[in-house]
């Protein structure tokens, strides 16, 4: 082989190796949502050299481990990953990275760290209940840990604050509710508490347990029954007086009812300034900060009866209104579609802000929205339809930004955001 040919081949090999080298990172990887079920929604941008042949490899590593697992290879710029379910585990962290391949060019994204909560064996789903007309009515949430084969309902007693009695199974069901008769009263017992718990048997064999519910009855034979008849206002605005009058009635027409209550912001237990007229039930409260307020109002009767009203007030800083109708491509209305509204400054940064559900006619409305830029998604209630971002975008990076003005007056400045859902799996 001649010296000139050898030099030429070496130069050609150098060019090929240079083209195959990893280029500077051009891909922006973002985790836009993490579900309690372990689903992680990821989106990423395309590199400058991307074309129709570009393939994206998504890698995941559990920290502090260093081994990366290839999750999927896809031509799309988004993916929903399902991390393995772990029981009795604290918060876990995962690292994600994208590697894009276009011919001989390889481009890597930034690394995204995502915390994912584990599934506790005890207290992993919420149990609620009440005593009504001599029956105990229980209702619980469906666990997010996996598919459930059946539920077992257990009960024990606490008499006069003594240690609980032996636990007994009272029901086995595939429903998310259970109704049983209340045991008969026990003579000379000042207080009787029923303690309930539900165990879910998963199809994988694990058994997870609900939160514990205690229902207490005090021995006061002539208590009246008090219940609320007013429907609370669930929306408020900064520096604007909140409008609501609590109203409760008693089964005893001669009873006198007095009101009291409190409010706290988000997960905080600190009570915010909140007043309610004890006689009229008129709430005197002007929110000073945006957020979700947990409100509890008590109605107490002089005959011994008491009722509590729990609700959440969403306080915003604006008057924006978003409304619309959701239809399919055949122009049929779609009920029970969950509308999610995310505030954004660009295509990558999103923060969850508001949500609503369509009624039986496919209509939805969200009031008291802060002015700004938003991306809005319609989540299908079934696999019959595809979920979609506005305007008909399958991926968040292609979603049209909706600008919400600060509306004035009850009918001014309404932003109409309709959706048309494509058919999915029929």
What does this structure look like?
With 426 residues, this protein is mainly beta. The chain is built from one helix and 34 strands. The strands form nine sheets. Strands 9, 12, 13, 15, 16 and 17 form a six-stranded mixed β-sheet that branches. Strands 3, 4, 6, 7 and 8 form a five-stranded antiparallel β-sheet that branches. Strands 27, 28, 30, 31 and 32 form a five-stranded antiparallel β-sheet that branches. A hairpin with a 4-residue loop joins strand 1 and strand 2. The N and C termini lie far apart (66 Å). Residues 3-23 have low confidence and may be disordered.
Write a concise synopsis of the structure shown.
The chain is mainly beta and 426 residues long.
Taking the alpha carbons of the first and last residues, their distance comes to: 66 Å
Count of distinct strands: 34
Secondary-structure-derived class: mainly beta
Global outline? globular
Q: Helical residue percent? A: under 10%
Please outline the major beta sheet.
6 strands, mixed
Radius of gyration: 29 Å
SS summary, helix count: 1
- What number is the mean pLDDT? 83
Low-confidence stretches: 3-23
Which strand-content bin applies to the residues? over 45%
């Amino acid at each position: 082989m001649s010296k000139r040919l050898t030099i030429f081949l070496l130069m050609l090999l150098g060019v090929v190796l240079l083209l195959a080298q990893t280029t500077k990172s051009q891909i922006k990887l973002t985790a836009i949502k993490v579900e309690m079920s372990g689903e992680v929604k990821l989106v990423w941008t395309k590199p400058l050299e991307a074309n129709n042949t570009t393939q994206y490899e998504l890698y995941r590593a559990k920290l502090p481990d260093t081994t990366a697992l290839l999750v999927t290879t896809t031509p799309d710029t988004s993916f929903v990953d399902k991390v393995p379910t772990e029981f009795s585990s604290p918060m876990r962290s995962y690292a994600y990275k994208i590697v894009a391949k276009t011919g001989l060019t390889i481009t890597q994204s930034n690394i995204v760290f995502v915390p994912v909560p584990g599934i506790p064996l005890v207290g992993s789903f919420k149990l609620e209940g009440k005593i009504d007309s001599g029956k105990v009515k229980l209702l619980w949430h469906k666990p997010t840990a996996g598919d459930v084969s059946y539920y077992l309902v257990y009960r024990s007693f606490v008499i006069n604050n003594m240690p609980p009695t032996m636990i007994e199974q009272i029901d086995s069901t595939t429903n998310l509710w259970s109704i049983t008769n209340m045991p008969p009263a026990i003579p000379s017992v000042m207080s009787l508490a029923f303690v309930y718990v539900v165990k879910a048997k998963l199809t994988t064999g694990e058994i997870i347990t609900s939160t514990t519910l205690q229902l207490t009855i005090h021995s006061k034979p002539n208590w009246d029954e008090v219940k609320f008849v007013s429907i609370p206002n669930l929306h408020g605005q900064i520096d604007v007086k909140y409008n609501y009058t609590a109203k409760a009635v008693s089964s005893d027409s001669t009873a006198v009812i007095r009101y009291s209550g409190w409010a706290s912001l988000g997960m905080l237990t600190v009570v915010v300034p909140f007043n309610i007229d004890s006689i009229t039930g008129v709430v005197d409260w002007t929110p000073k900060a945006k957020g979700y307020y947990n409100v509890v109002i008590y109605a107490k009767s002089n005959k011994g009866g008491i009722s509590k009203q729990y609700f959440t007030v969403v306080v915003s800083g604006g008057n924006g209104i978003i409304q619309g109708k959701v239809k399919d491509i055949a122009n049929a209305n779609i009920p029970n579609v969950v509308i999610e509204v995310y505030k954004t400054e660009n295509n990558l940064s999103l923060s969850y802000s508001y949500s609503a559900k369509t009624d039986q006619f496919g209509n939805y409305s969200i009031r008291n929205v802060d002015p700004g830029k938003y991306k809005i998604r319609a989540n299908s209630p079934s696999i019959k339809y595809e979920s979609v971002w506005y305007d008909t975008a399958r991926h968040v990076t292609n979603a049209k930004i909706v600008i919400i003005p600060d509306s004035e007056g009850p009918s001014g400045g309404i932003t109409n955001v309709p959706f048309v859902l494509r058919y999915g799996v029929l």
